Amino acid sequence: MERGYSTTSIDDVARRLGSTKGRIYHHYPSKADLFAGVFRTAMDLNFRIVLPLTRHGGNAAERLIAMARAHTRNMIETRAYQRAVWEGVELHLRGATTPEQRTTLAELTRRRDAYEHLFKATLDEAGRAGDLTFDNLSIANQVMLTALNSPIVWYSPRDAGSGETIDNLVEQVVTFAMRGLGYQGDITS
Amino acid sequence: MERGYSTTSIDDVARRLGSTKGRIYHHYPSKADLFAGVFRTAMDLNFRIVLPLTRHGGNAAERLIAMARAHTRNMIETRAYQRAVWEGVELHLRGATTPEQRTTLAELTRRRDAYEHLFKATLDEAGRAGDLTFDNLSIANQVMLTALNSPIVWYSPRDAGSGETIDNLVEQVVTFAMRGLGYQGDITS
DNA sequence: TTGACAACATACCCGGTAGTATGTTCATGT
DNA sequence: ACATGAACATACTACCGGGTATGTTGTCAA
Predict the structure, then answer these.
(1) Where are the alpha helices (DSSP H) in B55-136?
(2) Closest partner residue to A143 among B94, B173, B181, by Cβ?
(3) CA torsion angle for A168, A174, A179, A184 (degrees, to 10)?
(4) Among the four residues A130, B56, B108, B124, which has the most C-beta atoms within 10 Å?
(5) From the CB of residue A65, how many other CB atoms can be counted at a distance below 10 Å?
(6) Listed residue (A130, A122, A125, A129) closest to A148, CA to CA
(7) CA B114 from centroid of its chain's CA atoms
(8) For residue A116, which of A50, A42, A26, A172 has the smallest C-alpha distance?
(9) CA separation (Å) from B165 to A14, A19, A153, B158, B159?
(10) C-alpha B72: how far from its chain's center?
């Protein structure tokens, strides 16, 4: 989270743990595998929180709002993991050293794609129901997710001190995204 | 753009140029300075395109639309530079090696902040005029810019083949952002 | 003609880092 | 009591990559 994948050495991680390199390599065969563990944990968190919400009945748009809210809150609260994911996806798709690591990363990327598809499907349903207005589904999904993810980049815990609660932040981001998709209804929870 | 700052070696850059390391170090004192050159070029492009639009008279909201459109198009067309900026800002704020390089990076970061302020000021003006509806100015600006920047991440030239022109993409992104800010008027150029 | 300098190319150095090989300790089963 | 293996710590290796030192070539002014 703090220094990025490639600029953080295993010794750095060990030092932070008050531990040693030997210990880390006892549990993880390589640096890339350690990263994969972080990635996997992040995706597990995401699925665990959002997947149940896709099963709820009723209005697709309202389901999407609930998903967006949960997702955004999750991005803030598990920000350390999510930043690692973001950087890692781009960095590793090219720079992955061994072919074996490539396949691991490919699997994780598929997992992230599946996660994004949860939103895409709901978005599509809400669009067909006439509750949203957008042109291209894929593009709308990308822009929406980027907006919802944005706290990963700019959120800082010190913001909490300036009168803004996390609830407040989440509502602002979700409101922006839903209005951006042409939603006309009420958004406040 | 392709492999990120820290994973790309000077030899890689030289190879791509059909050149050698010696040539690069003849023109740039360090890798960080080479990066700073890319950053500076990107920011120059941004200012050159958006700054004139801030001087136009009339409605602040319409000015913001013009700025957003120009900005988004610029992000797509100069994507190679902008990706480097994005990664570099985060990576260097922490990992900058020498204090000298830190000051260089600090100056460039201030330049980016000044660029973002162009949007923030116009956003504020449009909000006070009652044409936009948002809660916190800083947050609204961040989310809006993240959305406008999003093509940096997901745009790929092959998308152009699938019937989507760049004009089309820009309009979708700008429409999303302006509606997200509560703009009710017409957006189409 | 020559001296100087820009504009490189080549060869080299050296610090940092992923990964490994080899101890060492402790718990547990027999 | 003893063997065994997990769970580490320590010491070491190999390599990569930023940076430097040193050649080489062409140009241009005096």
Answers:
(1) 60-77, 79-95, 99-128
(2) B173
(3) -80
(4) B108
(5) 24
(6) A122
(7) 12
(8) A50
(9) 49, 53, 29, 11, 8
(10) 8
* pLDDT (tens digit per residue) in A122-172: 999 999 999 999 999 999 999 999 999 999 999 988 766 677 899 999 999
CA neighbours within 13 Å on the CB side: how many for B129? 16
Supply the pTM of this predicted model: 0.93
Question: What's the CA A46/C1' D7 distance, rounded, in angstroms?
Answer: 32
- SS3 state of residue B22: helix
Amino acid in position B168? N
Q: Quick one: which of A140, A108, A143 has its CA closest to A127?
A: A140
CA–CA gap between residue A109 and residue B12 (Å, rounded): 26
Indicate the burial class of A136 (C-beta count within 10 angstroms; 0-12, 13-18, 19 or more). Answer: middle
Q: Which DSSP helix (H) or strand (E) runs through A59? A: none
Identify which of B4, B146, B169 has the shortest CB distance to residue A147: B146
Q: Would you say the C-beta of B15 is within 7 Å of strand C?
A: no
Strand C, CB < 7 A, residues 65-124 of A:
97
Q: Nearest 5°: phi and psi at A7?
A: -90, -5
Cβ(A76)–Cβ(A170) under 8 Å? yes
Report helix, strand or coil for B134: coil
| Amino acid residing at B176 | F
Interchain CB contact of A86 with B (< 8 Å) = no
From chain B, the residues in CB contact with A2 under 8 A are: 94
CA-based Rg of chain A, rounded to a whole angstrom?
18
Residues 6+ apart with CB under 8 A from A18: none
What contacts A153, CB < 8 A, 6 or more positions away? B142, B146
pLDDT tens string B161-184: 667 899 999 999 999 999 999 999
CA distance A86 to chain B (A): 10
Give the A:B interface size as CB pairs under 8 Å. 107
